[in-house]
Amino acid sequence: MAAQERVGHDTLQVMDYENPKEYVIADVTVSGIEFIQKEVLISLSGLKKGNTITLPGDEVTDVLKKFWSQGLFSDASITASKIEGDSIWLDIYLTEQSRMSRLTLTGIGKSETQDVREKINLRNGQQVTADIMDNTQRIIRDHFKEKGFLNCETSIVLTDDTLRVNMVQMEIFVRKNERVKINEIFFIGADNFKHTVLKRKLKDT
After folding, report:
1. Residue 183 within any structural domain of the chain
2. d(Cα 197, Cα 118) in Å, to the nearest integer?
3. In this model, does residue 144 exceed pLDDT 50?
4. Residues 6+ apart with CB under 8 A from 163
5. Per-residue 3-state assignment (H helix, E strand, C coil) for 150-165
6. How distant, in Å, are the alpha carbons of 50, 190, 193 from that of 60?
7. Cα–Cα distances in angstroms (integers) from residue 87 to residues 16, 181, 196, in the given order
8. Do 92 and 103 belong to one domain?
């Protein structure tokens, strides 16, 4: 019986790129994940027990691209946990993006906070990604622009939750700045209407 060779996390990186070898996948495991079902991730990878894979090769890179494209992970790697002859045991190591344990809004009043919370619709336990943070800030700025605060500024600070693993507390700072008001309105091409009437129609502008 051939001796079993146990290899570390950097195995795939140190393989000889000048002499790629074809292996039969003996098993695929997933580690580092807490919330997402591992079976789903294995299916997404396309790596199947009994299939062949050439290492080093583009197949591993393509699998990692699939995971990065999801936007759900802060780290992704594939390692060989064991090699025995032509058989290889692969482990997909993934680190999920942090999840939110608490949301705080700073710089606005209580009623405004409630309105903003309803609009951004963030929930405790939700993953915090760059896209989510960008979209959240855009929604808040648009919300206050509609109310005349055209120069509203926002920023987000994430703090590790010391009581929960891979959880963060999100604090959103909102600076509305001065409301932009219209000092004077000029009407062009409205000769058939009295300007005083038009101004009354726009009194809430």
Report:
1. no
2. 37
3. yes
4. none
5. CCCEEEEEEEECCCCC
6. 16, 67, 71
7. 17, 72, 86
8. no
Residue 12 lies in a domain: yes
Longest dimension (CA), the chain: 100
Q: Is the pTM of this model over 0.85?
A: no
Closest CA to 11 of 82, 80, 107, 98: 80
Q: Letter for the amino acid at 168?
A: V
Q: Return the closest-CA partner of residue 22 out of 53, 48, 47, 49.
A: 53
| 15 found inside a domain | yes
Query: Which of 59, 58, 55 is CA-nearest to residue 21?
Result: 55
Q: Looking at 15-24, 27-36, 91-100, 133-142, which range is the least confident one?
A: 15-24
Structural tokens at position 94: 């993934």
* CATH code, 137: 3.10.20.310
| Tokens (6 digits) for 123 | 């929930």
